Amino acid sequence: MTQKNNPLHGVKLEQVVTDLVTHYGWEQMAEQININCFKSDPSVKSSLKFLRKTQWARDKVEMLWLKMNNHQLPDHYFVNKADTEKPSSHTQKASAPAAKTDKTESSDSVNAHIWGNR
Signal peptide: which range, if any (predicted)? Predict the structure, then answer.
C-alpha cells in the first residue's frame, strides 16, 4: 500500500490527539469514543500510552480525526472487524459451523452519531 493517498501519513498520534482535544475537548471526546483515558483524569500523555497499546481505540481516534478534517474515510475502515476475526477455541466448538447472521443493519447504526449514515 502506498502512502500518498493516506491522510494520516506523517501525522503523529500526539498531533491527532492534540487536534481532537483542541476541537472537541475531553468531555465530548469521551462521549464520542467511550474509553476511560478520555473520561478519568484525561491527559495527552495517558491517552497516547493507551492508544499505542490498543489498536481498536486508536482506529476510532484516527477515524474521528479524519472525519473532523473532512478527509475521505478509507474503505477498509468500514469492514466489520468481528466478521474477519478468528473465533477463539473456547467460545465456539471446532466441529460446529458458525451460524451466519446479517450484521449489516446493526453495524450501520453503531457510532452513527459519530460518522453519520453511510
Answer: none
Contact at 8 Å (CB) between 27 and 39?
Answer: no
User: How far apart, in whole angstroms, are the C-alpha atoms of residue 84 and residue 79?
Assistant: 8
Q: What is the pLDDT of residues 27-55, one digit of tens each?
A: 999 999 999 999 999 999 999 999 999 99
Question: pTM of the predicted model, to two decimals?
Answer: 0.60
Cα–Cα distance measured from residue 23 to residue 6, given in angstroms and rounded to the nearest whole number = 22
> Phi and psi at residue 104, in whole multiples of 5°?
-60, -50
Q: Cα separation of 27 and 47, whole Å?
A: 13
Whole-number Cα distances in Å, 115 to 34, 46, 105: 15, 25, 15
Q: What is the pLDDT of residue 109?
A: 59
What is the domain range of residue 30? 11-68
